[in-house]
Specification:
This protein is α+β, with helices and mostly antiparallel strands. It contains 13 helices and 6 strands. 43% of the residues lie in helices and 10% in strands. The longest helix has 21 residues.
């Protein structure tokens, strides 16, 4: 199936993701209540067993409802973090948690059923649902407080990709979960050094707030994005880095375009997704 090929392609692009999720066994599926088990599409059972999808976090391009992002190409958009559910979590969302138990039911008025397979873990904490009646369903974000009936909930939901296949074709690893090579670390360090030197020259006011090269320089800033030793990027580190960039950018820098060009070069050197810089960059340029 195309869906399984796209999942395979995702793990080929990001082999580190093989260590980020959990493998499901046949026994895990068989232990589920029959009313849950029969509503999980066969292709998703196969995917859960074949690949470590349970509790795997991926990043999906999203405009987050921002009008200014509507015209941006999807590959350049910020990433929405979604985490796939384990079989047990699928069962709980199907039988115990609203709106899951509403969306899975069939009725005389609607033969369509929707299954929660993931959660938006950062922005809305809402569930990501797929139709169990489609071969390659469209994953959609369902807002629990935007309706009470299946019709109302689906009408107010938001598609996050045109199909499940496309979701995995576009999916990336979030920056905090990426591993940066030693060679890329060396390049990034040099770029940060250049950025800091240029900041000192181009800052029009409060130059004392720019770190000295022999105290907090490029090493400290690099350590804010890269976990020292393992070189793993964490949410706290990348968040701190972007915060520092935003703070430095408030210093009446004479050429903001050049400043953000350098920042993009650092992210490229570390093979980070640059869409996550969008909001900080857009705010600073206004």
């Amino acid at each position: 199936m195309e869906i399984l090929k796209s999942i395979e392609g995702f793990f080929n692009r990001f082999p580190e993701a093989l260590e980020m999720g959990n493998q499901t066994t046949h026994a895990d599926i068989e232990r589920l209540p029959e009313r849950v088990k029969k509503n999980i599409p066969e292709f998703w059972k196969t995917a859960l067993i074949k690949y470590p999808l349970s509790n795997l976090e991926i990043g999906v391009p999203s405009d987050f409802g921002q009008p200014e992002l509507k015209s941006v190409k999807r590959e350049k958009l910020p990433l929405m973090s979604i985490q796939f559910l384990s079989p047990l979590e699928i069962s709980e969302n199907t039988t115990e948690i609203f709106p899951g138990f509403v969306l899975i039911k069939k009725s005389l008025f609607s033969r369509k059923s929707y299954l929660c397979i993931a959660t938006d873990i950062e922005s809305t904490q809402e569930g990501v649902f797929i139709s169990i009646n489609k071969e390659d369903p469209q994953p959609r974000l369902v807002f629990h407080d935007y309706g009470e009936t299946k019709k109302e909930l689906i009408k107010s939901s938001e598609l996050i990709s045109s199909s499940l296949t496309m979701l995995f074709n576009e999916a990336q690893i979030k920056n905090r979960n990426r591993i940066v090579s030693e060679d890329n670390l060396i390049t990034a360090k040099e770029l940060i050094k250049t950025l800091m030197e240029e900041l000192k020259k181009s800052t029009l006011s409060t130059p004392d707030r720019i770190p000295e090269s022999n105290s907090i320089s490029e090493k400290e800033i690099l350590n804010l994005i890269i976990e020292k030793g393992t070189h793993e990027i964490t949410s706290e580190k990348i968040g701190s880095f972007v915060d520092i960039l935003s703070e430095l950018n408030e210093l009446s820098i004479s050429n903001k375009q050049e400043f953000w060009k350098r920042v993009h070069e650092i992210f490229e050197a570390c093979d980070l997704h640059k869409g996550d810089l969008y909001f900080s960059e857009a705010h600073s340029m206004n």
